[in-house]
Amino acid sequence: MNLPTADDYLPSHGDPCYAVRHYDLTLHYAVEGNRLDGDASLSVEVLEPTRRLVLDLSHLKAEKVRLKGAKLRRFGSRLHRLVIDLAEEVASGTELTLDVRYSGQPRPLIARHLGDAGWEELTDGVIVAAQPHGAPTWFPCNDRPDDKASYRLEITCTAGYTVVSNGKQTKHKRGGSTETWVFEQAEPMATYLATVQIGRYVDREVGRPASGLPLRIAAPADLPDAQHRAGFGRQHEMVDAYESLFGPYPFAGYTVVVTGDDLEIPLESQALSTFGRNLVGDDWEQERLIAHELSHQWFGNAVTLRWWRDIWLHEGFACYSEWLWSERSGRRPAAEHAASHHARLVEKKQDLLLADPGPADMFDDRVYKRGALTLHTLRVAAGDEAFFELLRSWVATFSGRSVTTEDFLAHASSLTRLDATSLLAPWLYERAVPPLP
Q1: Other C-beta atoms lying within 10 Å of the C-beta of residue 84
Q2: pLDDT in tens, 93-140
Q3: Distance between CA 236 and CA 142 in Å, rounded?
Q4: Helices 312-328 and 334-345, interaxial angle, to 10°?
Q5: Kind of enzyme, top EC level (predicted)?
């Protein structure tokens, strides 16, 4: 029997017949030896009649499964999936509680076209970079971006390490050779945005936004103060700027982790971003990355795509947010960035369909830049007042939900009184790069 796929961009991930409303994860992790033991309790709602639930779980062994609300027939592992057969069909609307005990040595999951993602050992610690397919490397889940849930995470780790995860830290307890940390993420979160960061980190001083939003930076003790201040000295000003442009910050706080290792790119998670120490500095390339990851809290984390083909709703918005920060901070205006990147785009191969780029090109830089230019086109046509009111309304209306390109076009048309579909169709649905307005 074939196993389900919820999104064609991510084969063999996700089961559309049910949704997880809450994850309660209790983990024990030994840094030396990379050993993970976990208990996961999932609150599940059945969306369509089924005799089977399929969870995503990679490289880890499910040792015990318990089910409340229906009778379990059997469970077994198959191709990075945990297949749970029920004794009889359950109806739509049925609420279940699924408990899974599992263990093993977590490692990244490698997928065709997408590379590797998930739980990865650092020189001294751990990083979880789950976008788009790495969540199953550390907990059993329904790995689809439109299935957003609340989370509670309790992790007991080797003493001497700091654990950072999504949401609000509610507990930290020291034992003999271990320390236990508890985090709660109340706002709905997609599986790929869940993360655990483990390292020998200390909290660094950081400015406070006008709204009073709690900001935290966890970084290695040997990161020079000058480098830290140069990189994150204006992050609180970015929050101020984005709150004025996009509306209130959508979560209880924002944390940045700076790893002791160098990283190729920064990593997005809900209410948290991760940077390698090599990505912290005061030049524009590094400053724009800080602005980019922060903006994802509005565009990607609060408002999340329903299908991976709509990735421009994350990356195009975050790229345009870089240009908006440049404009607000006294650097180049967004129009100059748009002109510069448009000139580069027309020189590149024009075979990308922004509204459906395909899994191989999902994170192509052209998606980022063409997506930003799509928004700039809308801004020019609508005018600043209507455009920024649209962005604030988009976040306020769809926060906690999953959306599509069609949702955005309909919302833009209703808010600006433009025919956004006709206006933006050349950018979204045609391969040739349109003229810049």
Answers
A1: 24
A2: 999 999 999 999 999 999 888 899 999 999 999 999 999 999 999 999
A3: 35
A4: 130
A5: hydrolase
